[in-house]
Design goal:
alpha/beta, TIM Barrel, 9 strands
């Protein structure tokens, strides 16, 4: 992408840890703090519905058991995805990607969809998420950014919706990561923030890719990353960082 249409500050899973992650309540809370771009985690139900869930299993955020991808959406949609967080959110249901898209499009918010496949379903999940996203955001000037740790998921997304921008997620600099990102025609690298240095930022940007980082939750780290010239910061601390703050540093920043 020669034009980068996304805000600099991105709210992790809606509102970080202030609300139950990946629920509409979290995205509404993040928006109330002024955030205009969100990150979410998407996977497939057993009947092919794209829904939001970070973990492969349901225990942590719903109290149910087993793999989320092995249940139909008719069952998943009835689970309680809020009580684990706090009594205030008791009864908050899981969210489908379609519901989140309606919220984002109605309010002009941007979205980073992390493709988080159930193990063994990397390619098919990438295809399904991208196809749905292409349909939901059809005709929009700012499509969602699709990211994944799994190159197979990104390859599926490219095959299904080649015009949607993609980003390779990294938690380590493994052999061939940049070549893989370029082969997948990615627009960005999204890396764990302590991994970045002057050299890695320069290398990525020289290759024509943007540098995004996760999950930045303290001011000292944010200032250091801005000085390196990263192009976007994903944070849990929607209560600490103003999404209107002007990034400083030598790199090109995204518009707020």
């Amino acid at each position: 992408m020669t034009h980068w249409p996304y805000p600099y500050w991105i709210a992790h899973r809606g509102a970080g840890k202030l609300a139950p992650e990946n629920t509409l309540a979290a995205f509404r809370l993040g928006a109330s703090h002024g955030y205009r771009m969100f990150e979410c985690d998407a996977k497939l139900s057993s009947d092919g519905t794209v829904f939001l869930l970070h973990d492969a299993t349901l225990e942590r955020t719903t109290g149910a058991s087993g793999l989320g991808g092995q249940r139909p959406w008719s069952d998943l949609s009835l689970l309680d995805a809020g009580t684990w967080h706090s009594p205030e959110y008791a009864g908050e249901p899981p969210c489908s990607l379609a519901a989140l898209a309606r919220f984002c499009l109605a309010n002009g918010h941007a979205l980073n969809i992390e493709i988080k496949p159930t193990p063994g379903l990397e390619s098919v999940t990438g295809q399904a998420v991208a196809a749905l996203a292409a349909r939901l955001w059809s005709g929009q000037s700012r499509p969602p950014l699709l990211s994944s740790f799994k190159p197979e998921a990104l390859a599926g997304a490219r095959a299904s919706a080649p015009d949607l921008p993609r980003a390779l997620l990294l938690d380590a600099w493994w052999d061939g990561w940049l070549q893989t990102a370029l082969a997948l025609q990615c627009s960005a690298i999204v890396a764990h923030h302590p991994m970045y240095s002057t050299q890695t930022v320069a290398r990525i940007q020289a290759a024509g890719l943007r540098c995004l980082c996760y999950t930045v939750n303290d001011e000292q780290a944010a200032r250091a990353l801005q000085a390196l010239g990263v192009d976007g910061i994903i944070t849990d601390r929607v209560d600490l960082f103003s999404p209107d703050a002007v990034p400083v540093g030598r790199g090109q920043s995204a518009p707020t």
